[in-house]
Amino acid sequence: MLFNSIQFALFLPIVFLLYWFVFDRFISKSEHQLRLQNAFVVVASYVFYGWWDWRFLLLIAFTSLCSWGSGLLIGKAGTKKEAKTWTTLNIVLNLGILAMFKYYDFFVTEFAQLFHISTDGLLLKVILPVGISFYTFQALSYSIDVYRGKIEPTKDIVAFFAFISFFPQLVAGPIERATNLLPQFLKKREFNYDTAVDGMRQILWGLFKKIVVADNCAVYVDKVFSTYTEQTGSTLLLGIVFFAFQLYCDFSGYSEIAIGTAKLFGIRLMRNFNNPYFATSFADYWKRNHISLTTWFMDYVYYPLIGSSDKLWYWNLCMIITFLLSGMWHGAGWTFLLWGLYQGIFIVISMNLSKPRKRFEKKHQLKDNRIYEFFTMFVTFFIVCIGLVLFRAESIGQAWEYVCGIGNTGLFIYPMKKKLVLRIILPIISMIGVEWLQRNRRHGLDFIIDTCTWWHALVYFVIFLCVGYYYLLLSVDTPASFIYFQF
Amino acid sequence: MKKFIVKSIKYIIVFLIMFVLFLRVVVFFPNIKSRQSHEVNVARQIERMKQIDEPKIIIIGGSGCGFGLCSSMISRHFNMPVCNTGTQGGMGILLQTNLCKDYIRKGDVVVVIPEYTNYYGNRYLGGSTALRILTSIYPDGYKCLSFRQQLYLIRYVPETFNNTIAAWLEPKQFSEMDDPYSQGSLNEYGDVEMYDVRWVSYSSVQSPIKWNNFKLQYKTISLLQNFCQYCKNQNAVMLLFPPAYRAKDYDVNQENIDMIWNALKEAQLPIVSSPERYKMADTLHYDTDYHLTYEGVIIRTNKLIADMDSSLNNSIIHF
Q1: Which of A453, A469, B83, B265 shows its CA 20 to 30 Å from the CA of B66?
Q2: CB distance A464–B19 less than 8 Å?
Q3: Single residue among A189, A210, A242 that ends a domain in this structure
């Protein structure tokens, strides 16, 4: 079930009403009220997830059960070694499942090609379950945090299943930590009017980003990438800039809808994006982009890797390894691996240059200089864009040809489909404008409730109108899926 | 909680009403490009049908009729006036037939040639082309739309409006001398002429188009049955023909075409000829898999005349 589908538009109010009126209000005297409400969350989430393919439910239930069981075993372990064994077992099991579904066929194919072996009978050819990387990482974080003593293992299996499968963030994050989300399922949720209204606004803003910006960009980007050998440099350049906005608005749009939906149920999810294209350095970009995944890799890969080492070269190496793994997390393919390496190298450069850069800025009094700020944003955005060619291309060869094509052919010729470009640029400018004005707030429509005026209502209506208009325009038959579902 | 629900419902209802009103308003902006194009044929032929009192031949279909038949040959052969209403397949067969219904009279021969797209999916209900033509060319036709069809077509309003804006921003000035899509290319019967510029062989540049996710649309068959009955009630004769289709495309879709034709046979519709007879050589096609070159038009018209002859002189032939 997609957030931008009619099914979800019907599913959400039904679940909302049942959640607050049946499982909260009418059975509030029951001592099992919280468990029943959590059980309802699990059922609703499984309906939501099973909409794609009911067989995926077995996998998520198995992952949840193993992680919950391992948490208990870690908690009961008499020695540190025993706890470590259970943690390792759970990690191996979860990563094993992920590897089997996501990476097995890729590595077997590559290995077979290298040694000229036939792959007959070796490939699994299984469908990649939607969002498997997201909920696997969420489950892993729980057992690691229990092992580290950051959280007590929970005996409440229903609350734990709700934590893993909570439908707003199940298929594309934010990848929640047990320390933040699990305690919310262990205590009674209270409905808060202001939070719910804010949630609705955030959903509307997420839909705008997804439908009006991302899906619109996708029309152009798909066309450019499928015919990149015939396109001029200007078209190729525009194609990758639009892809940058497509990717950001698609994924951050999903996150906004997820966070907004969770607010309707009295649950607070972590922020996943903080205007990454306003970043003034590459390191800053990764502090703002896909925050839940970046912090996950920092906490569970990077910091354990560096350990107690104080050698800068080793820190840099660990950072590159971390981003290589992050690239692999995104997909089984050399392009993702290379994309991860590209990110790792640039983040190391950015981090190592931060001190000299600060000295330079201080010397030339550039800290509050708006032109300098925009310039650094532009440079960061440009580096991000070049990296995204790897993210979008189907092979390294294609990515290389694409980048070469930008420089080789007609960079100053009008790009293809001028009218389409106009249709895309207007929503992008509107989105950037709103996010710039609201950059210190949590989302684009994060207004102060008390100051609600007709002007706000007009803004909501214009956004609603754009969402409806573009929804009809772009998805007459079926609504477009979200890019990050494939990961 | 109550306040939140009431307020949310209020907002959603008000926004939805305003959104529908917005769509209702923008759909009435005419497309200036459409008004200069061969699409004016719809209004012209309706006007002709109104004025002709004697028995006539009405041709209903998509652009494959306008770009694929020589009505003057048909008219001469049967000694009857011909109104070729076939302008755009995107209008959908439901609208195409409904627009003609009021003008079918005793003794008329109604030749129905739906393009294959009408037989699967919801294309029989039309799309943005239907809205564009109704708004820009024949607004009276809106009353031919059923409520269900109106509901269905709402989704095409943005696409129609975007095309209207695009036409305003960059109006294409049709040169009546050399553009078959200009209104100047139409003859009095509704055929697109300018055969001298329609020589490009489509087959050499385009790969065949395979119909994806084919699922026979039984509603099209049912509406053709109703239309046939309507013609009978008016003492007119309806003949159902397969469209002229490019051989390459025919071959990749043959299984589905056979399925369509078998279903039409089972529905006991007055089908004339077999689809294979109208499978036209690749080189006879102009710019789409339905549009023909001059040579193609003559071959196809001769076949159509022969088939009509045998059907009208004898009884309806079921192949």
Answers
A1: B265
A2: yes
A3: A189
Chain A neighbors of B22, CB-CB under 8 A: 465
Q: What is the pLDDT of residue A207?
A: 94
Topology adopted by domain B26-313 = Rossmann fold (3.40.50)
ipTM of the complex: 0.76
Residues pairing with B113 in the sheet:
B61
* Domain spans in chain B, listed from the N-terminal domain onward: 26-313
Burial status of residue A85 (CB atoms within 10 A of its CB: 0-12, 13-18, 19 or more): middle
Question: Rounded distance, CA A137 to CA A100, Å?
Answer: 15
Nearby residues of A281 by Cβ (< 8 Å), 6 or more positions away: A350, A354, A357, A376, A380
Which residue, among A377, A7, A266, A304, has the nearest Cα to A144 in the 3D structure?
A: A304
| Residue range B232-285, pLDDT digits in tens | 999 999 999 999 999 989 999 999 999 999 999 999 999 988 999 999 988 888
Which two three-digit tokens encode residue A172? 């594309």
Task: Tell me: do A223 and A267 sit in the same domain.
Answer: yes
Where in chain B does DSSP place strands (E)? 57-61, 82-84, 109-113, 237-240, 245-246, 279-280
Q: A306: exposed, middle or buried (C-beta count within 10 Å: 0-12, 13-18, 19+)?
A: middle
> Between A and B, how many residue pairs show a Cβ–Cβ distance under 8 A?
40
A330 is catalytic: yes
For residue A356, what are the domain limits?
194-486
Q: What is the structure's pLDDT at A232?
A: 86
- Kindly state whether residues A169 and A255 are assigned to the same domain: no
- Residue A464, chain B, CB below 8 Å: the answer is yes
Quote the CA–CA distance of B1 and A274 in Å, as a whole number: 30
**Domain contains A1:** no
A317 and A361 housed in the same domain: yes
**Which pLDDT does position A177 carry in this prediction?**
92
Q: Are residues A179 and A205 in the same domain?
A: no
| Contact between residue A168 and residue A263 where contact means Cβ atoms under 8 Å apart | no
Q: Mark yes or no for CB contact B166/A470 under 8 Å.
A: no
Q: Which residues contact B162 (CB under 8 A, 6 or more apart)?
A: A423, A473
Same domain, A153 and A206: no
User: Least CB-CB distance to A472: which of B3, B8, B155?
Assistant: B155
**Are A393 and A448 part of one and the same domain?**
yes
Task: Report the distance separating Cα A431 and Cα B280, nearest Å.
Answer: 51
Q: Which helix (H) or strand (E) holds A380?
A: helix A370-392
